[in-house]
Amino acid sequence: VRETPWRCAAFTRLLLPQVTALERQVIDFLGYQWAPILANFLHIVLVILGLFGTVQYRPRYVVTYAVWAPIWVTWNVFIICFYLEVGGLSKDSELLTFHFSQHRSWWREHGLGCVHEEALATSLRPLDGQALVSGSGCTLEYHYVEALHSVLQALVALVGFVYACYVVSALTEEKDSFDFIGGFDPFPLYHVNEKLSHLLFKQAFMPG
């Protein structure tokens, strides 16, 4: 199958969400953010489906990613509201960790310019067996970093959605044009040749 310029451009645009999602997944793993980890994993799988559909000319897989993209944008809007404490949400809650640990965000402990201080344990034994560390005096507070990450994810997803719609439209047009010239249906040509052979055979044996 011949490569087309639009397909190469679309593949590059759809690859960007995968790169940013992998970076986000690593950060959330380091911060024990289990809800975002599950969401990121699902997002990575669906982006792979979109890339596979683009490479293999499978519009249905690209449509699956296009349907997921608005959901991913909505999730990132929720994350923004969570860290900015919009609508009664609190960034200090354990909602994103499923109450399995007291960690909040990897950026809270490893932010740029932060002064690290050992947090006092509220009990004799921490829930996850690890000392909690908080940072102060950061150049950019961790909740703003997380919010900016989600803004980036939402923007990239919107770009991916636009290109996914473009890919589906282009693949559908190519398939329709190929069907029109009989590219996926070998039977009409076979039947036409069979009919012509039958007529020639009949004419050859007709009495003069």
Automatic annotation (TrEMBL):
<comment type="similarity">
    <text>Belongs to the NKAIN family.</text>
</comment>
<keyword id="KW-1003">Cell membrane</keyword>
<protein>
    <recommendedName>
        <fullName>Sodium/potassium-transporting ATPase subunit beta-1-interacting protein</fullName>
    </recommendedName>
</protein>
<keyword id="KW-0472">Membrane</keyword>
<feature type="transmembrane region" description="Helical">
    <location>
        <begin position="37"/>
        <end position="55"/>
    </location>
</feature>
<keyword id="KW-1133">Transmembrane helix</keyword>
<dbReference type="GO" id="GO:0005886">
    <property type="term" value="C:plasma membrane"/>
</dbReference>
<dbReference type="GO" id="GO:0002028">
    <property type="term" value="P:regulation of sodium ion transport"/>
</dbReference>
<feature type="transmembrane region" description="Helical">
    <location>
        <begin position="151"/>
        <end position="171"/>
    </location>
</feature>
<keyword id="KW-0812">Transmembrane</keyword>
<dbReference type="InterPro" id="IPR008516">
    <property type="entry name" value="Na/K-Atpase_Interacting"/>
</dbReference>
<dbReference type="Pfam" id="PF05640">
    <property type="entry name" value="NKAIN"/>
</dbReference>
<feature type="transmembrane region" description="Helical">
    <location>
        <begin position="62"/>
        <end position="86"/>
    </location>
</feature>
